[in-house]
Every structure is written in structure tokens, then in C-alpha cells.
Amino acid sequence: MILRRHLDLARQALAHNTAGALEAEILLAHALESPRSFLYAHPDMVLPPERAERFHKYVERRSNGEPIAYITGSREFWSLELHITPDVLIPRHETESLVEAALQKVPVDACWRLADLGTGSGAVALALARERPECEIHATDISPAATELASCNAKRHSLMNVSIHCGSWCAPLNGRFSLIVSNPPYVAADDPHLDTGDCRFEPGLALTPGKDPMKSISEICSQAPGRLEPNGCLILEHGASQGEAVREILAGHGFVHIETRKDLSGRERISQGQWPGELNEST
Questions:
Q1: How much is the pLDDT for 278?
Q2: CB 141 within 8 A of CB 181
Q3: Is the entire prediction scored with pTM above 0.90?
Q4: Domain for residue 69, yes or no?
């Protein structure tokens, strides 16, 4: 069977998806280990049986709801092509707002120490490392599989100014940091959205901290002062309805100059605060 016929069948199978036609092309290109442009250049090519079988298995997985990123093992974030596995959350485009907020705080030629807590695939840490090559980036994650993946992604892009540590939030870190960022789990365990879309396939540990959606954010706000330099900044991504709660938590832990940024849809998604405290020499 020729290529375009395989593609037509896949488009029909994925017609219930909003971007089904595009997804069919992405999956076929992945099965052929070729760019999508190859599909347009060779529509009448007869697919080798093993490639055709691989392609239709991909289509079946996608038809069952499995995320494209897990099928292809790849996701682009901040123009970085990242290797992705089911061990980590799939990087969202919205999280690029967290990177933007951080970059606004860090001068282009700064030689600061920065930290990313709960790094997952390393998306945020690697974006910061690329944009601020003179900075020293430290990223943590409690999942050994995630830290291994983040390390692989750092090597893939030759980002030598990133160190990956396995442990919970600030626990693996030493010394002080000018800036700490995090996109922690902030969805309540009983939120019905966890049973829809990509969330059904993503690791629960990366999505929800349990019954209290503020648990991880509270832990980070409690630990961050012990690792921030005076006037250092903590920046957090959170749910669209959680801005007020996050501001209260930041204030309760002594942060000042607290503010929240809205996304392009006008929803509060990024909150930040400055740590004014003096250095505690015992930490």
C-alpha cells in the first residue's frame, strides 16, 4: 500500500482528535524516521511492511488517547527538542511563561546560581541554561528516572552549566541561589481533570500532591528561604484559580514584593516573591 493511502486511513482513525490529520503525519514521519516534508515528496512510495506495521501501532496508541509525546519520545520546549518518557510530565507551552518570568529577573551577562525544583524532563532548567550560559543551574527532582532523563537532555544539547540532583525540592541543594523557580504539582487528587486527556497517562506524582493542592507550593515556600540569597527571588507556576492562595503562602513565609503574572488568556498562572532575610550561616 502506498504512503498516502496509509496516511488517509490514519487520518480517518484519528478524526475524533482536533489535530488528527497533523498527528497522523507526525506519527508516519516518526515511523519512517524522516521529516514530515518526506511525506509530501514521496506520496506514492510503497511502505516497507515493518514500517507500515509500526505506523499503525502508533496510530492505535494515539487513538486510545496516549499522548503524541510519549509515542514519539519527543517534545519541543523553548526551541529545545527534549526526549520524553512516561516517567515525566509532558512540558506545556504555558510553562514557557515561567522561563520568561525568570529571564526578566536575570541579566544577560549574569553569573548567578539558579535552581529549578521538580525539573522533570529538565525543560525549564535547560531553557534557562541556554539563555543564560554564564549562570550555574541546579535542578532537582525526587524521581530517579526523571533526573536521569533530565541529565540525558542536558547532554543532548551540550548544556554543561546544568547539574541535576535527585531529591525532594531544596533538599539536595547546597549553598545560596539568586533565583529559584518551580512548576510543582498543584492539582487536587480528586480533580476530575486528572481523568481526561494527557493527564490520564502522566505520572500522578508530577500532577498532584494529594488532597491539598497547595501542599507542594507550601513546602517550597518553606524551604526556599534557606537557599535564597538576601533579595533572591522565588517564582512559581500554579493553577489559574490559585493566585490568591499562592500570594498568601508567599507572604506567610516572609516573602515581599509579591506579584502575580497573567497568561495570554488573562488567567493568573505565575506568582513570585522576593526573600528579604539575612543569611543564616548555619545553612
A1: 64
A2: no
A3: yes
A4: no
